[in-house]
Every structure is written in C-alpha cells, then in structure tokens.
Amino acid sequence: MLILDGKIASAAIKEQLKLEVEKIIEENKRSPHLAAILIGSNGASETYVASKVKNCSEIGFQSTLIRFDDDVDQSTLLNKITSLNEDINVDGILVQLPLPKHINEQKVIEAIDPGKDVDGFHPVSVGKLVQGMQTFIPATPFGIMLMLEFFNIETKGKHAVVIGRSNIVGRPMSILLSSNIKYGNCTVTVCHSHTHNLKEICLQADILVAALGKPEFVKADMVKDGAVVIDVGITRVEDITAKKGFRIKGDVSFNEVAPKTSAITPVPGGVGLMTIAGLLKNTLQAYHLKQ
Ligand code: GUN
C-alpha cells in the first residue's frame, strides 16, 4: 500500500514554482500577487488563510491579507473586491468560505473578476471547466489531480466514486475525473446525502474520493480490495488530550481502511497540502494571463 504523501508532492510543486518566480524576478518583473479576504474569526478559516499566505511567501509570491469583522456590510466587501479587480498589481483574489449568514455567497463569488478567480468558483470558471476549456480549477480538486499525476495513478477506464457534491470539491472533482484528460477518463458516480445503497456503490469504486465532511465515515467494509482512496475531510474533533484541544480527522477511518487499499492519502499531510499547491499554481497562471 502506497501512502500518497502530500508533503512530498506539494514540496516538489512548490520547488518548481519557486524556480519560476526566481526567473520572473531575474527579468526585473514584479512577482505574482495573491489577495486573500478573511471575514470573522473562524478558527479553521484563520488557519487555512494563514497557511496560504505563508506558502506564498515561501515561494516568493506577494500576498495581501484583508480582514473584516463578522458583521461587515456586504456592500463594503463587494467594494473591496471591485478595488482588487481594478488593481493591476493583484493577480489572484480569494474570499475564504464559509461567509457569515448575512452575506450572499453567490454575489461575492460573482463579484470577482473571472481573470483573477484563483479559487475557480465563479460561474465562468465552472462553465469552462465543464466544457473542458482552460480555466482556474478549484484548488482542492486541482490539488488531487496534481497528486494523481505526481504518483502516476492510472485512472483511465476506472470507476471513480465521489462522495459529496459541493461546489468546492465533489462537483468539480467529478467533472475532472470524467474529463478526457491524462488523469481523467474515469466513469464517475457522484454520491450524496440522498444516495441509496451508498455502501454497495462505494464497494464498486476503483478510486474513492471522500469529500462529505463527516469524520471517519468511510469504513473498511465500504472499500474494495486494492482501491485508491482519496480523503478530503479535515474536521476538527474535540480532544482534551491534544495540545490545541482538538484533532484533525479525515472522512476515512484510516487505520482500518488503509490495509485494504493500493494507495491512500493521510490526514493530515495529504489533500490539504495539495490544495495550497493548486492555489499557488492558479495564482501563477493568473499572473501569466495578465502579462
Ligand atoms: N473554504 C474551504 N475550502 C476553500 C477554498 O478552497 N477556497 C476558499 N476560498 N474557501 C474555502
């Protein structure tokens, strides 16, 4: 059984991106610039955004973190996005989700210039993805595709089962795996909260992507021998024995599932790190689109 180590794969991608930034700097050009907007003080969102900013600086990207309080007006947020759209020194814009309830998430996503939509959530980006056009691919599915490529996992003709249909992960993942691309060409089944016979369907999966956000949901009796298992879950579960008071759990019961698989991603240290690699690659792409 192969551990699909996100540390190794993301480090290799970051190293390559760092070299590309060095080349840009040598040509006396400005480096790529990501602007991240964080609203409120959700612990997980804080951690993710801090990690995105840190990773930018590690490879030589510029980054700007813009923070708003939980009770920020929607119009203030939209005005900020407009000014970032117009700022010629900003290549990529992301608004960390989820947003407070009084803010219309769809309006915020649609306010971002599709040319700077490094999260790939804008309907223009999603439409292009569905049509197999060049676009920004949402960072988590993009990261998973980069991981399949890095470890050269054969996907052609395989049955991929994706649990979860979110706009951030499940839906775009299903599109990518079914696309006519190198690490695609799967037959894809998308499962969700209304799926009947979930266990039976999962047992048919050659590639199982768990993206439902329920800790340790996938058990050994749901996984076929030799399957490739991709665990997208990152849930904080209270644990008073842990230093921070919580532990990160994936959607897969790793200890019982791993021995049955041919390859599996760990949590932490798997897909989460690849998500950042996907975002960084999108930011460089946005930069090049503007040059
Ligand atoms: N919240 C959870 N995942 C993501 C992501 O990939 N991008 C943004 N902006 N918010 C998220």
Mean residue pLDDT: 98
The number of strands is 11
Q: Segments where pLDDT lies below 50 for 5+ residues?
A: none
Count the DSSP helices.
10
The order of strands across the largest sheet is: 1-11-8-7-5-6
CATH-defined topology of the largest domain: Rossmann fold
CATH second-level architecture of the largest domain = 3-Layer(aba) Sandwich
Run of helices and strands: EHEHEHEHHHEHEHEEEEHEH
Beta percentage is 15-25%
Give me the secondary-structure category: alpha/beta
What do these coordinates show?
The chain is α/β, with parallel strands linked by helices and 291 residues long. It has 2 domains: 28-113, Rossmann fold (3-Layer(aba) Sandwich), CATH 3.40.50.10860; 139-272, Rossmann fold (3-Layer(aba) Sandwich). The protein is 40% helix and 16% strand. The protein is built from 10 helices and 11 strands. It has helices at 6-26, 43-59, 74-86, 105-111, 123-130, 139-150, 170-178, 198-203, 254-257, 271-290; strands at 2-3, 33-39, 62-68, 92-95, 159-163, 187-191, 207-210, 228-231, 235-238, 246-249, 263-264. The strands form 3 sheets. The protein has a 6-stranded parallel beta sheet with strand order 1-11-8-7-5-6. The longest helix is centred in the N-terminal third of the chain and has 21 residues, at 6-26. The N and C termini lie far apart (44 Å). Bound molecules: guanine. Residues 94-97, 119, 139-140, 168, 275 line the site of guanine. The site of guanine has 9 residues, from strand 4 and helix 6.
